[in-house]
Design brief:
Chain lengths: 104, 309
């Protein structure tokens, strides 16, 4: 029986710097800067040195890189896919809620 | 180990051209990509497709695979042919798709292991320092409410002394804190590949009774017309157990009542909402019909009064 590992919850107040995101994803800073330029990531702060990224950015970067690698899409294509998937997820939740209200 | 029919996996014939193979792969990759797909077992399916493509896209590997012969069937017990030993083939620079190393099957490893693994400029997977890993974890609403310890299985690529990549399987027991919310991430420091962190994105499974919205939960409560009209007390389930809720007189269908702080714990804790749903009894006995007629005669009630004006 392995030890039990305590999980640290990343709440919405946790912010990441550009350097931390580079380390986490193994991506070059230029790639992440490009993701900001096409609106895939929306950091607070003016220039790259001051940028602070919300916690969802991590998963978004990893998904984008995987989509780019596996499906041979560029960053804009990956951004479009992620936006549409967010929308689909939102609509699915809405459908479930409405179906339930209708009493299934 | 079991034989894998890579052609079948991609849905192409053994005579397929490289272009046909590429098209088939791209289509299936979109269908099963774990970041996009809602298919069941998307991740496992995607790995299978990737493995098949890894072999068939590379003419050298494809030729070697074809030499096994056509008589093998998917899932059939397979042993490496004598003298295989990657005989004559050096799988070098075939352009590794960058699929997570160590994720391929034993069948693949036995055919294209060692030599192939060391090849490939940059290797894709041999990071000087550990990248963070991401995974999703399904948590029941009850576990999110109470907190729970969950076992998760991980597969990490490991580079051994000879430079071969092998899959290291391990399991972790993770404490999920009470009050975790859907979409939230939890970090397990140092548990990723090669010393990186492991992030788990929490997916809270749909619940039989409760609908979740942030930390709030809602529950549909069916009530009789007279309970709605006159008010009553009903026993309702909450995540923390049954409580008694007061339905005020004059309640209407669709009306929401709030049970303060009966949702998921946190700062602030969530609430539970009761969504009232008035259910009218059937008029399937003389008695019931008589009561309905009496109401129709004696109550001056028009449910559509003003509704369409």
């Amino acid at each position: 029986m392995a030890d039990i590992i305590e999980a640290a919850v990343i709440d919405n107040g946790t912010l990441f710097t550009l350097r931390e995101l580079c380390r986490s994803s193994g991506a070059h800073a230029e790639v992440i800067i490009e993701m900001v330029e096409i609106g895939l990531l929306e950091p607070q702060g003016r220039d790259p040195a001051d940028w602070r990224f919300p916690p969802q950015s991590l998963a978004r970067i990893h998904s984008t890189l995987r989509l780019r690698r596996d499906l041979e899409v560029n960053l804009s294509g990956a951004a479009l896919a992620l936006d549409l998937m967010d929308e689909v997820a939102r609509l699915r939740r809405r459908v479930r809620a409405l179906e339930r209200q209708l009493g299934e | 180990m079991e034989y894998k029919d890579y052609y079948k996996r991609l849905g192409v014939s053994r005579e397929a051209t490289q272009d046909e193979i590429k098209r088939a792969y791209r289509k299936l990759a979109r269908k099963y990509h774990p970041d996009v797909s809602k298919e069941e077992n998307a991740e496992a399916q995607f790995k299978e497709v990737q493995e098949a493509y890894e072999v068939l896209k590379d003419p050298e590997k494809r030729t070697a695979y074809d030499q096994l012969g056509q008589n093998w069937r998917e899932g059939q017990q397979f042993r490496q042919p004598p003298g295989w030993d990657q005989g004559g083939f050096e799988f070098r620079g075939g352009g590794f798709t960058g699929a997570d190393a160590g994720a391929f099957s034993d069948f693949f490893e036995s055919l294209f292991g060692g030599g192939f693994r060391q090849a490939g400029p940059g290797g894709g997977f041999r990071q000087p320092r550990g990248e963070d890993q991401f995974a999703r974890i399904d948590v029941s609403l009850e576990d999110a409410y109470r907190g729970a310890t969950r076992q998760i299985a991980l597969e990490n690529p490991m580079v051994d002394a000879q430079g071969n990549v092998t899959a290291q399987r391990r399991s972790l027991n993770v404490r999920i804190p009470a009050g975790i919310r859907a979409g939230q991430q939890i970090r397990l420091a140092g548990q990723g590949a090669l010393g990186g962190d492991l992030y788990l994105e929490v997916n809270i499974q749909p619940h039989r009774l409760f609908q979740l919205d942030g930390r709030d939960v809602s529950l549909t409560v069916p009530i009789a017309p007279w309970e709605a009209a006159l008010g009553t007390k009903v026993a309702v389930p909450t995540l923390g157990g049954e409580v008694s809720a007061t339905i005020p007189a004059g309640a209407q269908s669709g009306q929401k009542l709030r049970l303060k702080e009966r949702g998921l714990p946190g700062k602030p804790p969530g609430d539970q909402y009761l969504v009232l749903k008035i259910v009218a009894p059937r008029a399937d006995t003389d008695k019931a019909r008589k009561l309905y007629r009496q109401m129709a005669d004696e109550l001056a009630f028009d449910p559509r009064a003003g509704a369409w004006s």
